[in-house]
Each structure stands twice: as structure tokens, then as C-alpha cells.
Amino acid sequence: MTRLVNIRRVSFLGVLVALALALHLVEGQVPSPLPWVRPGFANLMTLIALLTAGWRAGLLVMLLRVVIGALLLGGFLSPAFVLSLAGGLASTAVMALMARGAWRLWSPLAVSAAGAAAHGGAQVLALTWLLLRSGDLGWLLPWVLVPSLVSGIATGLLANLVLLRWQGYFRAVA
Amino acid sequence: MGTVVQITVSHTSESEARLAINEAMSELQRSDDLMSHYKPESLVSKVNRYGASGKVQVGEGFFELLREAVSISRASNGAFDATILPISDLWGFDKGGIVPRNELIANKLAFVGYEGIDLDQSTFSVGLISSGMSLDLGAIAKGWAVDRAMEKIMSHGIRNAIIDAGGDLRLIGGRPGKGFWRIGVQHPREPGGLLATFDLRDTAIVTSGDYERFFIADGVRYHHILDPATGQPARGCQSVTVLAATAAEADACATAAFVLGPEKGLAFLRSRPGVRGFIVGADGTLHWSDEVIEGMARR
Amino acid sequence: MKRPFIEVLWGPGGVRLLLGDAAVLGILIAGIFALVMPKAADGQPARAEVESSGKAAATLNLAIDGVREIGGPLGVTRLEVRGGRVRVLSSPCPRQSCRHGGWIGSAGEMLVCLPNEVVVRLPGRLPGAPDALSR
Q1: Is C30 on the interface with A (CB under 8 A)?
Q2: How many residue pairs bridge chain B and chain C with CB atoms within 8 Å of each other?
Q3: pLDDT tens by residue, B94-140
Q4: Residues 76-115 of C with CB under 8 A from B
Q5: What is the pTM of this model?
Q6: CB-CB under 8 Å, C64 with A138
Q7: Which residues in chain C are contacts of B207 at CB distance < 8 A?
Q8: Alpha-carbon span B231 to B78, nearest angstrom
Q9: How many Å separate Cα B155 from the centre of its chain?
Q10: Angle at the Cα of A84 (from A9 to C58), degrees rounded to 5?
Q11: Where on the phi/psi map is residue B106: left (φ > 0), alpha (ψ -120 to 50), or beta?
């Protein structure tokens, strides 16, 4: 018996990954005072995948984006990659948990904001670990968390809009 | 001095306060350079080296200190004695400490006795009667240094300050708006615990305890407050706290009362005008020199 | 779409926000503030000031556990922060009296390694605590 693969879902996720990558690469070009802090719009795709197709889909999209993005940009297994991965895993985990309450207790805005905060926090933790715990980087937290939160809110609002507007499409495809 | 010094000043001008504090710190350093028997160039070391072969000129300030030390020795019947160095060297508290053999202590006891300090007021010079004698001013020097430092602070017109040299305190005035400083007294058996607190102004307060410098050998605790009569650590008290007008007097009297034990120690404190305090006996009971200080304590 | 638990319809062009959003955002923002401003809670100091050879060397955030190394004339003194308290984990001094101080966690307390010239101070004063300690 062949396993049935949901072609629609695969294509849908593929599109999401491609869009996420595009955003990721474009964001990477924008100069910023804190090099590893990005507006994080690429996370929008992870969020959509998560909220429409489940946490496994979200995880997949995030992993593919991070890995392929690093391969394309030439940073595979570099410190920046580790930070990205740490942030991505943490934010996906948090968003997956928050997704339980999505549309009932709160909107994707909260999911995205919480995920963004987790993303930033995990990156600071990873950075501290990378520097072999020779210092206390706690002071970095506000500098990372505030931009993360802001971008998380922006992404979340966009997600709200997109998910509501095209809910029909998502239901068909995911 | 090997202690942590903290100076607190409350004053209208921050720059003046900082200046005063720096001068006080230098004065503390200067006092230590003069009085530490560890430093070969100090006045005390000079007296220890040459005092037996002829009088050593020490200057008025140091002379006054020695005079006070001898006076308190007399008043306490030798419980406080600055000539105890030969014995304290045997114990070596600053080097980890060992229990000296009794014969060694007996030998050195012959050289302990404040009566052997020969003071010549006219030339401000000091001599030692026999060549085995040597001075250790440790039990009064810190207080003395604190008093000198406080004079420097006051010379800047500052009226509210605390000088804390390793737990020996001298204070003037009080917290702004309060009129007094809240002073805690270390509990001799609970690290981090308080025995009592007092609201004080314009006084010195010094505590001598068996918990400050000690070592343990074969399950017995040997602490650094030695009885000049026996050469052994005094066992009558856990701690003694004395309030006096100067830190030097409080310092020396606390040591003397500790050696004397609760009964004689209290009598000694009561005999000195302007001095009050309390003793924690070896069994942990509190003995107050008078109801005034007992009433002042908040527990 | 599932029926929302508490609904607050808001937003131009179909952005739908719920009460939970405000709650979550509020918590996140408050959390960030709490991290940014280490304030004494329950009279516990939030920072430890570290001096090396008399000069300010570091400030430790007591809310974040970790180990910090401070250099001095004898070598490296390692300080550990855990549960809002700090202690000397290791130090190159001969008598190790700094380690006997154990953990400190209240305003005004201090740890000192004299030989390596390291001082760890918890600033401030508890409302009822003494201005100085006679010991």
C-alpha cells in the first residue's frame, strides 16, 4: 500500500518555505546595529504553516528555512547558524504551545509575539553558551527582546490579516 | 591591616565628602605603617628591636597611644597587655595557627608584662626593660587608627559619618533625618545573625569575639584573644561589646573584659567612666554593664 | 474558525484581536521590564557590585544564574550566582576565607578575598537593617 501524500499540503508548504527563504535572504541584506537581529518576517511563514497545518508543518518550514538559508548564504554550521537554529526551535516550540489557544483565547498576534520573545531569548542563551559561559550576557536581553517583540507584533498582525482574509484557501490546501 | 574598611559619610558637599574619605583612608594606612609589628619599618618594630638597649623616640602621638595602653593594662590588672607578642607569635594565628607546647609558653610568659614598658614623657620615648620583650598593639591599634581617621573626617566639617574598620566602629552624628545610626552587633554563634541593634550617635563601639580569628586543632577551637597571665586563649566569654568615647578605649577595654570573663569584666567596665557594654558569657548568657545599655538594645 | 472565548473585534480591514492578545502582550512587556530593571524584590538586592584591586570590575545580575571570573594579582576568582545569591566558587588565595563566607543574598552583605583583592558587595540597605555591624 502506498502511503497517501497530500500533494496540496506538500506544495503549500513548499511555497511557504520558498517565501520564507526569500524574505530571509532579503532581510539579511538590510544593515542593522545588531547583526543577528532581524525583523523576522520570515517567521510569518512558519506561523502560517503552524496555524494551518499543525506544529509538525511549522517545525518543518522553520528547519528548512534555517538550513537552506544557511547553505545559500554560506553560513552552515557557523555561529550565526547555531543562533538561528536555537531561536527557531525555541520560537516554534512556544508558538506550537500558544497555537492551542489561537482564535479562542488570543489571536495569532499573541502567538507570534510570544514566539518572537522566545526566539530572542534563546539566541541570547545560545550566544552565552557559545562564548563558553565566560561572562554574563543577561544585559543583552532587553536589547534583543524589544526589537524581537516589535517584529513579532508586526508579523502577528500580518498573520492575522492573511489568515482571516484567505481562510478559505488555507482550509483547502493545508 | 588586613581588614576591610568602610567609611560612610553624609554631607552636603559630595566632593568634600570624597576628599575627607580619601584622607581618612590615608590616615588609616599611615597608622598601620606606624603600629603594625609585621612591618619592619614601623615604630613598633623599632621599639621591639632597640627598646631594650635604650629608649626609642616615638613622637607624641604614638607616645599617647602607649600611655593609654599602659593605663588600661593597669586598670584591668594586666588583662589587656601590649607586651603579649612573644606569646602570640608562638600561636601564629596569622599563619594558620599551631598549639604551642606548654614549656614554650611558660618560657615566653617571663617576657610578658606591661610594667616592663618604660615611658619617658619628657622626650616622648619608650624603652623595654628586658630584651626578650616585644610589643603587639593589635588589641588597641585598630581603634586608635579609627580615631585618627575620624579626626580627619571631622576636620572637613563633616558631622555625620561612620568609620568601620573590620567591625571596629566609630561614629559621629547620624543618618540624615534620623539623628542616629542604627548599629548591629554580630551574634557570636550565628554567622549573619544579630545579637542586638542600637541607635547610636557620637560614640565608638567595638566587639571582641572568639569567632573572628581562630583555628581548630583536635576538635578544640583556639582563638586569638590570649590571656596574658596564662598564654592561652581566654575561655570566659563568646564576645564582648564595649561603647566608649574613643575607638582605642573601646578596643582595649573589649579585649580586657574578654580576658577577665563575665564577672570581673563587667566590674572593669563599670569602673571606667563613660564606658558601657555587655558580655556574652561562654554559656551564651548576656551580661549588661548597666540598665541604660540594656534598655537601649533592641532585639 | 473556532468560536473565540472572549472576543474583542478591533482593527481595520479584518484584523481580529482578542482579549488574550492584550493579556499575552502585557505579560511579555512586563517581563522585559522586569529584566531590564533589576529592582529589589522582598528586600533582595538584584545586583552585586564587584571590585578588583579597589576598582569597579563588574556588576552581576543576581536574577541570572551563572559563573563569572574576576582577575586579580593572584589569579582568577570565580563567583557563582544562583537563586539570587552569590558566593565565591573558587579563588587562588591560600586561606580560602572568602569561600567560608558562603552565599550572600541580602543588601549590604559582602564577600572579600583579600589576597586576590576581590570584593563582592550587595548594595543598599534593608529598611530595618543596621547601617554598620560591630563584630
Answers
A1: no
A2: 55
A3: 888 899 999 999 999 999 999 999 999 999 999 999 999 999 999 99
A4: 95, 102, 109-110, 112, 114
A5: 0.60
A6: yes
A7: 134-135
A8: 12
A9: 24
A10: 155
A11: alpha
C-alpha cell of residue A141: 536581553
Q: Distance, in angstroms, between C135 CA and closest chain A CA?
A: 34
For B163-279, where are the alpha helices, taking DSSP H only? 247-271
Q: Does C54 touch chain B (CB under 8 A)?
A: no
A124: confidence class by pLDDT, cuts 50, 70, 90: confident
- Give pLDDT, residue C40: 46
- Please give the average per-residue pLDDT across B50-71, as a whole number: 93
- Report helix, strand or coil for B109: helix
Supply the ipTM of this predicted assembly: 0.89
Cell of B230: 596564662
Query: What is the C-alpha separation between B136 and B32, in angstroms, rounded?
Result: 12
- Min Cα–Cα distance to chain C from B244, Å: 13
* Domain spanning B166-298: CATH 3.10.520.10: yes
Q: Which residue has better confidence, C71 or A40?
A: C71
CA atoms within 13 A of residue A80's CA, in its CB half-sphere = 14
Neighbours of chain A (3+ CB pairs under 8 A): C
DSSP state of B272: S
Residue B209 to residue C135: CA distance in whole angstroms: 7
Helices (H), A30-166: 43-53, 55-73, 79-99, 108-130, 140-165
Q: How far apart are CA A116 and CA A90, in angstroms?
A: 9
Mutation target vs C (from A106, A148, A169; most C CBs, 10 A cutoff)? A106
Return the closest-CA partner of residue B48 out of B119, B102, B127: B127
Reported as a single tens digit per residue, the pLDDT across B191-243 is 878 999 999 999 999 999 999 888 998 889 999 999 999 999 999 999 999 99
Residue B273 reports pLDDT greater than 80: yes
Residue type, B163: I
Q: Is the CB of residue C1 less than 8 Å away from at least one CB of chain A?
A: yes
**C3 lies within 8 A of chain A by CB:** yes
- Range among A87-96, A132-141, C18-27 rated most confident: A87-96
Rg of chain C over CA atoms, in angstroms?
A: 22
Query: C132 and B6 in contact by Cβ < 8 A?
Result: yes
Residue type, B95: K
Alpha helices in chain B (DSSP H): 14-35, 43-50, 59-75, 85-91, 102-109, 138-154, 247-271, 291-296
Over the stretch C47-86, which tens digit does the pLDDT of each residue have?
Answer: 888 988 877 888 888 888 899 999 999 899 999 998 888 9
